[in-house]
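Sample 1 of the test manifest.
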Amino acid sequence: MKPVDRRLMHYAAAARAFFGVGAVLALAQVVCVVAFAWLVSSIVVSAIEGAPLTALAGSLAWLVVVVLVRSALAWLMEVNAARGATVVKSQLRREVLQALPRLGPSWLSTRNRAAVSTVVTSGLDALDTYFSKYLPQLILTVVVTPVVLVVLFFWDWESGLTVLLTLPLIPLFMVLIGWATQKAQTEQWQQLGRLSGAFLDVVEGLSTLKVFGREKRQTARIRAVTDEYRSATMKVLRMSFLSGFALELAASLAVALVAVSIGLRLVNGSLALGVGLFVLMLAPEAFLPLRQVGAQFHAAADGVAATDDVFEILDAAGRGAVGADYSATRATRATRATRATRATRATRVSVSDVSVRYADRVAVEHFSATFAGGALSVLAGPSGAGKSTLVAALLGFVEFDGSVQLGDRRGGGGESTPLRSMPLHREAIAWAGQRPGLLAGSIASNVSLGDVSPSAALVAEALRLAAAGDLAKDFVLGVNGTGLSGGQAQRVAVARAFYRHLSRGCPVVVLDEPSSALDRATEAALIAGVREVAERGAIVVVVSHRPAFRTAADQVVRMVAPVGIAEPIAAAAAAAAAAATAGAPLSAKVG
Amino acid sequence: MLTSEVLRLAQPRWRAFAPGLIFGVLSAAAAVALLATSAWLITRAADEPPILFLSAAIVGVRAAALGRASFRYLERLQSHDAAFRGLADLRVSIYERLIPLAPDGLRGTRRGDLLARLVGDVDELQNLPLRVVQPLATSLIVAVAAVVGVSILLPAAGLALAVTLALAFALGTLVNARLAGRAERDLSPVRADFADGTLDVVSNLDVLVAFGAVDARLDHLRDTESRLTRAALGTASGTGAVAGVVSLLAGAATFCGLLFGVPALGVVTGVAGSAGAAAVAAAAGAGTFGAVFAGGAIDGPVLAMLALVPIAVFEVFGMVPLAVGAWRQVRVSAERVAQAVPTVVPPEIPADVPVQDLRVGAIASAIELRGLSARWPEARGDAFGGVSLSIRPGDRVLVTGPSGAGKTTLAHALVRFLDYGGEYTIGGVEARALPAEEVRRTVGLCEQQPYLFDANLRQNLLFARESATDHDLLNVLERVGLRDWALERGGLSAHVGERGALVSGGQAQRIALARALLAGFPVVIFDEPTANVDPDQADLLLADLLAVAGPRRSVVLISHADVPQALVTQTLRLA
């Protein structure tokens, strides 16, 4: 571990101000330390030499002043540290929030989302101790220790030498033990992340565990995982604390050496008592900051490990490893495209020769289709055929080969006006995904998502079209849209897409499995709404396996799984056939 | 759950806690002894006595130096280990309290909050033994010992030390409470808000991007972040004030040691000194105070100790106000942990029945329902009612009805996630009289949204039947039509991802189906098994699962979609 991570200064400019103020305060602090030791030792010596209290009044008054200044400095140092930690955390949090849209949904889908949230929230709190305990002591070490050393050498070079020779042992131990613990510390932080995920995973999957009668066993697992965490942490701590032990030992033994040597020289009469006491009080001060640095070593390591995760996100965003920026403000070019589509009347979406490849497999291969305006197109195909991937490609969430063009007719003229085509932008699409993806807030605020001045009339209209007119618009949902049933959430998500279509004139409406959680009656109502939207001129593409949607469709486009991916239909059929012929053995095996 | 109960769980047992405390006291005592003995040694040496008189002090100085470091190391190891052991107990007991409530008794718990609570607050509770109890106990013991020691040397100085220490305690906590108490209380909810908001954005980034709402959400989140930062800055001045006050009182203690010690020194050094002290006593009230309490004779070495011991004691005592600050945060976390776990189980959640020897055999899996009704916690009325049904082994019961008709409620009542009204017997035994686990051994549920653990495919299947071999697992996967897909993904060791993120809806349903087959329930309830499966597959899948179920197993199929009548033996329509 480096004493201070360079990236911290790079990403958090506030850290520089913290160090600047800290250095000034440390300088004032060292003056107080020397003055306090000098005053106390001189008062004691004068008193022993017979000076009455009245004669010492001046020194005592100065002592009061020094004590007052010292306490003010202690206060300011703490304030500086707490402010530094707070402001730096704030800056890092903001940078991560800024980075998220740059990284985009496809980057996030490869991560544990709870872990990403933890990094920005409780993970960064490890910086608190880093700033309040470690860094101020680091500054003091740099400022106070050399000054105290110089003073010691000036008054008693032998004590100064003892301290000077003992001091380097401390950084030496730090480096040696630091090397030994670095790997273990990094592992511990990863394990902590894994552990927080594991505990939550068990709690969230509790109903499934209960169904299978495994809920009680998890107690042992939680205990085992926590115990694993304890022993891993203790392994690190034994080493970290060992460095603390070495530092404490070096510091205490140095003070003991100084004290004994001064005592012996006083017996010889080769040293004045005043100097002896002064040096005795000052010697621990040379070690104090360094001891604190050592004692807070593991807190510092935690802080650095916590920032590592943050820096990883920031570095990924900085590298621009992900092509597009998903933030709306950067998409001015696309906004212009939206205006263009609004002014014209889009009549079709042409998908030509689109392929999507992931690192390990092909999800969509050479797919072409045309979706017409004013019509309901249903995209069908077995699971794994790449329907949702195609939708992600339309939205620009995944990179693809081939082209997706929006064909439009300028000014809404007749058939004679030539078709103009342009790349389809996300801004021209109103979309509802397979997962409802609702947010905390009222149903109305969910439906009008992305609209700065929502229209209550349009919200009602959108809900009606999505067969969700019965839901209370001001009903408030929890985080991730909790509080609605699956079918209700689904319809609100569809209403949200309709609202966008109605309010912004997005020509394309894409719905991914909009009725998977609906009963037939509600589904029929939804289909009526979808048809109404289509008949008003929208290009409606619905991904669905439901017969009702296929019956209602003007066009059904089938997708087939890319070569190399077996169709589950075939497997299920084979299994059914096997079960039919050999039914008894199969059931015997299961039962 | 009560806050005091959470705190009790967070505090390790005395036996685990004591070693750390003892080592802590020894280490702190050694630190005070090091400075005190050194001061005595040096001042005594100035009188140039024979070296023999000093040898005990020299040994004492060295012993204290060694003791401080060694005891400190042992203390930290012991106390951390004890705290971590306590954490395991705490996690487990929180989890055990969730078990009877899940899933339907926990519906009000927002996920973001749950995350913040279980990760943040439980981790925060580790600070109770480490940062609250241990430093408080250590410094109090050492402070009392130091006050007693100093009082023996010079009662007035002892009293001054006691007063400054008590003031440091009172003022430090009081000032802290005044300046930072409110801000700190504000901090926790804002932090939870920020965690919720962050989770919302991170989980739904695709939606926010598609709707061009990323910037608005991030702006909102930035506002929350600003509130969080403001609240945190509010606490900053509080922590600082505590440090300032402690430093001030430490200086005052040394000052008082000198103020009372110097006149007392006069008593022993001679008549002149005595007269000087008397003169001061006449001049200043403090002097009178000192002379009255001084009572006896102190020499130079003792004066040096009186001046230096407070410095060392306050170094130890400095952790007290910080411990009090840590205590407030621990208490807030404990309160929220307590809130997350309701004390009273809602009446709609079945109470636990102790496990008996009674076992429901294969023949006893016949189910009778008479006038059955059930409701969700906090619901105004029953989700369904008046359901009467006989399910014999081998039956195929189709349950249909529109959304909200209570189909899932029925499923949850049958597996005893929810309590019921009316009669529900399994093999002639009232289900209420059976342990819920026993009921679930007979009646299995394939949930509408199956939960996939953040683990590989094997681990996601194996918990349904732990004795299953890879061969068994692949067989089951073949039956649900996933074998080739699984092999394509890298076999049973393929990761299914966080909450099944790497698996499509239909595939997740198939994995859940495979689990139910592995577990081998005599009665299986399928809650909308074909909701996310293609229609051309759906019929085959239904035929498949009914065939696989075999002639002796009964199946309750909940579906809003059409099911061929030939496949079912009876139909229950909920309205």
